[in-house]
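Class prep. Sample record?

___
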Amino acid sequence: MIQKINEKQNILGDNIGFVENWDFSRANLNEENRILAITQVASICYQNPKALGSESLYNRLAAESQGLPSSSFEFVPVLLDTSKDRHKEILYDSHKLSNIYKYGEEIDNKYILTNYRAIYYDYEQKIKEIKEYYNSTVASPENDINYHEDLKILKERYLGLFNTEEECEIIKEHFKVFLFKVDFPTRSQMVRHRVCWQELCISGESKITTLQGKRTIKELYENQFRKSANKLPKVRTYDFNEKRLVWSEIKEVFSTGKKPVFEVVIQTGIKGNKLRIKATENHKFLTLDGWKELKDISVSGFVATNGIFILDNIDELRRITLEMINNKVTKSDYAKQFNISELSLVKRLQKIDMIYSDISFEITNYHLKSWCLENKQKMIEIGKNFKEMAEHFNINKNTLSKWFRRHNIIYSKEEIILLKKPSWNKGITGENSHSYGKILSDKSREKISQKLVKPLGETALGFRFRIHSYWMADFRRSKILEIFNNKCARCQTEDLSNVELDHIKPVRLYPNLAFEESNIQPLCKKCHVEKTLEENELNNHTYTFNFVESITLIGEEDTYDLEVEHPDHNYVANGIIVHNSRRYVSGKRIPFEYYTSEKLKGFSAEIGEESYDAEPIKTSIEDLIKYNENMYYALLEAGVKPQEARRVIPQMGYTQIWGAFQPKQLDNYFKLRLDEHSQWEIRQTAIAMKELIEAK
């Protein structure tokens, strides 16, 4: 099982900091041990002791990044014996540039010590190769028994690979895992080593795509401290389950100090248009092989950039279309789901030789003057006006209007009179209207709602004004505002000068809820615009892969990162999809434990100058710590979220971090950190680690 071997307490002389040596050698003995190993790490990283042994957390981490496991899977070591047939199969499948070799080490010229995450990465690559082979040789691989059998064998070979007790003893000798409790500056030094821990950050210049427009990450960081600052805006995140970009809340924006950064230049395929971003070498980018740190991405490689419309992605278009056909969703409803016309949808399907239904669709040539004139006359003959003509040919009214103007095509006075439709209200408006001030009964509302309902929520356009008028009547508006205490339902502002009533579930999708009081909320103009943006076609976009032109070391810059409230942990910066997770524990778990160096102990300082016969204020490090404690509790009592309140905890606060070392990594750590010129605090961690390893 996963267990602590030994520990070295009081490494910094204050009875707080420690280094623990843990045995993870049996993590790949069986599936249960794998789960324990991963969740053992996660229980610290996610600040949740209940996470230990959680299968749901394990499964989420296993599919964290486009179906590939998180870095916590690097804590599961795997030993491959070059002399054993069951291991030879995997080693034979792999090449020297595979992840098995890349993240592994050769032991005693007989064994390859790697990790389960590397195994999983190579397994996914083999899956792709098998699928490509069968797609090129078999018309329908899904119906081929051999195809499914090959996938089953591959899964058993890679993911069903476990080590024996004897192999675990060899792993124990070479694979070392430590849990550290150190101050923040020491942790910052430690994470510079290429070991399994993470500290991700990008340059402060990087522009983040938000609902309020593009903002630099530095701006977002600074704004969150302003007293008058509003809630942090939502950012674009790629959802791997929905396979589209969505909006997600920012959990926290944080500064990660001055660090060496690299400038990455990406070709977009558009002449003269290049994407640029500055990031540290360990920041993660989405690549063809899943999430990779910048140091592992080569020039001429590919990274994911945002903005391509889902239905412009051929693979996605084919997948979604088949799904729609199987669900018997009509072509019209399919088009509405993505806010495009049927014509646009048909043209896309024609490009990939797909037919959505047996109904033929006339391709209109509205850009030709002859077509516009001919069909204008045809529509007039059957009594259809311009708007009805656009609907007849399934063309956007504004688009058709644009081409009519270009061709200088107009309707004569006689034609306008001929096509004029009688007013629905017979010209009677205002107080003279029979419905003025009328309160609809529940039965009447239900009848109207039924009239509004068409397949997949299509709304009859003629009732839109009626819906708006119904809710904007003074007595209804007042009632809704009263329910929400005369505040915006989102930001809680009490400025009602620009409050607008909003359908929580949009009428175009839920027309049956158009007159339901429970579906109405007051929103300020800013929040209303934001919600509308969330609901529009912006969510119908996915990423595309683009070519890395260059990676250049720039020098040291102030760096920042942010964390989002989304299980896929990513956001869009400078048009590029980047990862955001940080796997160390912040001060929440141990908020009031501090490291005070010898130089700071007993230190006190005078603040201010003598004036008005007043004595200067004296303060000490202990006073500062006590002040921060009181402020932290005060913020919590005021309703501030813990992750926000922790910002007042100074750098001397303690934190916990896991580290997993293979032999060469450990040797390098000792070589650098046992040196007498190394920072005293981090040297103590190295001394403690060495003593624990050498202890009998």
About this structure: The two ends are 20 Å apart (CA to CA).
